[in-house]
Design a protein that fits this description.
single chain; alpha/beta; Rossmann fold; 5 strands
């Protein structure tokens, strides 16, 4: 299973407009309907606030919205501690609280996280400055993370 980050669904929609790439979105809808793709409640709320047309599309596809559970909260606490984030001392250049919940959701669900946050070829020494892909690879139990385009390519699907 895969799980969307807000960045990936927004990026995908902007990069591959549904009017010009209807086959892609039909296929993605079929993946959602087959429960191959879900979204965390945190990411869904970000999409809803930033881009109502995208969240309306996701809702129309009946996307599974994974709620924040006690197990996900525990994962988030573990991730936050591994990054050296104490209380709410997040670094403005790194992951925020929502990002940690999104990563924790993917980790708890055993899902690949589809995120279009930029990778950091050279990791900062301050782990609080890690972006989503760096956090995913730095965990004791890593979360696979791929860009929206990588997800499409890995599927092997061909569109029109």
């Amino acid at each position: 299973m895969s799980m969307f980050d807000a960045s990936s669904i927004i990026h995908g929609w902007d990069t591959y407009p549904i009017n010009q790439f209807p086959g892609l979105w039909t296929w993605l809808a079929s993946q959602i309907n087959a429960n191959q793709v879900a979204i965390s409640a945190t990411a869904y709320e970000e999409v809803r606030l930033k881009s109502p047309d995208r969240s309306n599309w996701l809702r129309a596809q009946d996307v599974t919205v994974e709620p924040i559970t006690a197990a996900i909260l525990q994962q988030a606490i573990t991730i936050k501690a591994s990054l050296g984030i104490v209380t709410d001392n997040y670094h403005q250049d790194g992951v925020g609280e929502n990002d940690i919940f999104i990563i924790a959701s993917a980790r708890e669900c055993g899902a690949t996280l589809i995120s279009d946050e930029k990778r950091q070829p050279i990791l900062p020494t301050d782990r609080r400055r890690y972006k989503i892909p760096a956090v995913c690879t730095s965990l004791n139990i890593p979360v696979q993370c791929q860009y929206f385009l990588e997800y499409i390519v890995a599927s092997g699907e061909r569109f029109g």
